[in-house]
Amino acid sequence: MYKRKSWMTTLGATVLAGALALSGCSAKTANQPDSSAPPAGTTTPPAAAANIDTNATINLATNAEPNFNPWSPTGYAESQPITEILFDGLTKWGTDYQPVPALAKDWKMADDGMSWTFNLREGVTWSDGKKFTADDVAYTFNEIVLKKELGASNSSNFVDVEKVLVVSPTQVQFVLKKPWSSLPNYLAWYAKILPKHIFEGQDPWKLTSFNKEKPVGTGPYTLTKYMAGQHVELERNPNYYGGAAKVAKVIVSIVPDSNTQIAQLLSGTLSMVNVTDPTLMEKLKSNPNLTVNELADNNYYWVALDFTQERFQDVRVRQALLHAIDREAIIKGVLKGYGQVATGPIAPIQEKYYNKNVKTYAYDPEKAKSLLKEAGYTAGADGFLQKDGKTFEINMPAGQYGVLVQASQLVQQYWQKIGVKVNLQVIDWNTYVQKVVGNRQYDATLCWWRAPVDPDVLAYYHSSAAGKGNNIPGYKNPALDKLLEAGRAAKTTDERVKVYNDVQKMTAEELPYLYLWYPTLAVATQKKLSVPKTTFIVAEDHITEWTVQK
């Protein structure tokens, strides 16, 4: 699911809940090269070019009530558009999806692979004027992220971190339980640093003055006003270590309905929208006032089954349920062709690592029925399958976001055709996150993951991430665990390719998730806003370079 992250990061993940709106103007998308931030302690004034509006206001719409704590267990795709520009992590995403410096200016792995040392920027201050130091980094991880009982969002990404040591005010060391070659990648993935002087001695989830009112960050924007249920106002941080942003103000409006966002885009009110409804793609493409960029991403949709239930632990049942879904029809009908059938957790964007030579599951209802018969299911008098006197019945919550409801309705129909009774419950996004992610109250559910562009998927599949972590189904397999650990320990590309080819073969056979499709993402913009040609959340990591033409 969308991150997100983020779990939804993870919907993480991934997967963006919002639309960027620019009052009274339109926007143009442009490629921008990566650039290093200026030295700490310096401030670059907004561009003074005659055609750049340095007083511009941009409106960003999100689909639900946000939480300003980037590690909150209840903050996902609805919050990330805001927290991404209020806070910084040690690293951030380059436009090539690889980690580049942020609060850390450089980093190095120890020869034995058991630690990473990060050198921090000097002269960085929090938005309340306090000095940022290594103590903030250590506190964020040791006291919030690594405390399993707190269940911080995305904390399962860091299960291989033992602790974070303060070496000096400008240097920290991540001490690992096991070698982890992709740590800098994951530190760019919604892993924001929190201020120790605000959180020390507080319950991080109950600190309302920060989480819902006035967050303190090191990012390029600061929050100036929040009106619950309406909007959030942010202004550029003039003391941002990376140089002051060229856009003066960002207003984040809460607009739950994606159709309303699209209507506002077409009317010229909104300037940038993540297109979550593929049926609108051609209409947007044909509009002469818009630019629509189709983008590949490390994103895949799936159905998760609750592995705490014995019936779903039978691989024949999982394979049958996937054979019963006509994924090509969903891609053609719901996605209008903007996607391809998924085979596992590593998307084709990762050309070096993607393995297409794995077990596949063509649409075959008769094969599905045969597998279920092998698993002991027979038709009851009412036409539904049963075993040991119990009807094969699935409770399936569907969150109101993008194509989730439409796709869930089709899955319901496909499964009922083979004799599985499906109770579909359509609920709003915030309720869905609480029900499915927070409380794991579901039998099956359809959502997505968007993860770092790296083959390391340990945080989503390892047994240690089951329960409150990003392993939503609760799938546990010691053999897969060993492969995932070997992938983190591998130091060369060739070693990693071999390991992750095996990971994909195993996940295709075992189906920890029922893999549905890899979507083609799209971002639609007007003509006067220049942003990097990349996914929205990566573009936000470069928001200081966004410009609005007069």
Automatic annotation (TrEMBL):
Name of the protein: ABC transporter substrate-binding protein
* A biological process from GO: peptide transport
- Say yes or no: keyword Lyase present: no
Keyword hit for Transit peptide: no
Q: Name one GO cellular component term.
A: periplasmic space
Note the Pfam families from the entry: SBP_bac_5
Describe the location of the Solute-binding protein family domain by residue ranges: 98-465
The secretion signal range is: 1-27
* InterPro entries, per database record: Peptide/Ni-bd, SBP_5, SBP_5_dom
Compositionally biased spans, kind Low complexity: 37-48
- Which family does the record claim for this protein? Belongs to the bacterial solute-binding protein 5 family.
Would you say which domain of life the source belongs to?
Bacteria
Q: Where is this region: Disordered?
A: 27-48
Keyword set, alphabetical order: Signal, Transport
User: Listed GO molecular functions?
Assistant: peptide transmembrane transporter activity
